[in-house]
Amino acid sequence: MFETLSKAPGDKILALMGEYAADPRPTKIDLGVGVYKDEQGTTPIMTSVKKAEQQILSSGKTKTYLGISGNKGYGAAVLDLALADSVDRSRVRIAQAPGGTGSLWVLMQLVNRARPGATVWVSDPTWPNHNPIAENSGLTVKTYPYFDTETRGVKFAEMLAALDKLGKDDVVLLHGCCHNPTGANLTPDQWDKVAASLARSGALPFIDLAYLGFGDGLLEDAYGTRKVISSVPEALIAFSGSKNFGLYRERVGAAILIARDAAQADTAYSQLLNIIRGAYSQPPDHGAEIIRVILEDPQLRAEWEAELNAMRGRMIRLREKLSEAIRQRSNSKDFDFIAAHRGMFSLLGLENSVVEHLKAANGIYMIGDSRINVAGIPEDRVGELADALLAAIK
Prior knowledge:
Elements: H1 12-22, E1 29-30, H2 47-59, H3 72-82, E2 92-98, H4 99-114, E3 119-124, H5 130-136, E4 140-145, H6 156-164, E5 171-175, H7 188-201, E6 204-209, H8 218-229, E7 235-240, E8 252-258, H9 262-277, H10 286-296, H11 298-330, H12 337-340, E9 345-347, H13 352-362, E10 364-365, E11 371-373, H14 382-393
Parallel strand pairs: 1-10, 3-4, 3-5, 5-6, 6-7
Antiparallel strand pairs: 2-8, 7-8, 9-11
């Protein structure tokens, strides 16, 4: 059987993790892996999460199945958090899924059942896992213009022109906030124009909402998603609680569908649940129950929001410090975009040879396309990092 197989290509990010772990240099810096890190370089468990877990441990009575759609209280809480009152809930259905990745997969499968082989338009560039998930679901992937390598901002005129040409059988994958890998995001006015374009063309918006609260705030980061779904008859949303609740290994996400009316929502939802049943059958509950407890408890909710605000504030502060340090040393504004970007990531625009030099000479690890995780920057070594970057570029 297995003699017919050839070795699959390795995951570059996981390989980078292995290289970093094996590097004995105490001065090494990890800017590659996409997880939040605190001042000590660790990915902490939020205090609100620990308190919710204590409640769950003390009050739990059973570990029986919850059903294909998962934790219903969690689903309701996520809809309140992400969508609020932006759309008639009679048209909305939600199913818990294993992480944002699992949510994307489930919804891609649903798209292929509705429109076999449909084209999914993704931003150029996009999160590397978007393409294989879509392709493995039987869909066709094409790109729309997004990132301007000269300005390090969004090519919005070109993006909008591409979206305006799409039709009702096209699917448009949008990053709800904190674009991965670039860090360049749409403004509210640009979101308004994207929503209007989708309403005109009839193309289906598919929003990847993986970093809610990591950009400018919960309300601000939800603006684009809410504007789009309030403007169109149908939409899909893949939600992740990995980053904003720090629940990476718990794999907690949600697949959300919005249909034209309640009847179509029920039909599409039956297909969604059928897909889940034929794959992982039912989702794990621990992470979902943590989020439910936090969002339903006013005191824990306030504590979680304060922690989230502190995480976001730290990343913005690191962006500003690195941008300023480079400007002071180079007398150039070439890297000011770092301070303007939002979320965990920025795409620096370095040649791969520069990235490899930084790794070999300085023990500074980043993805090959020069995406950095700003949360991985040691705050007391920003100047050292700026020096290394400028020296490597020269």
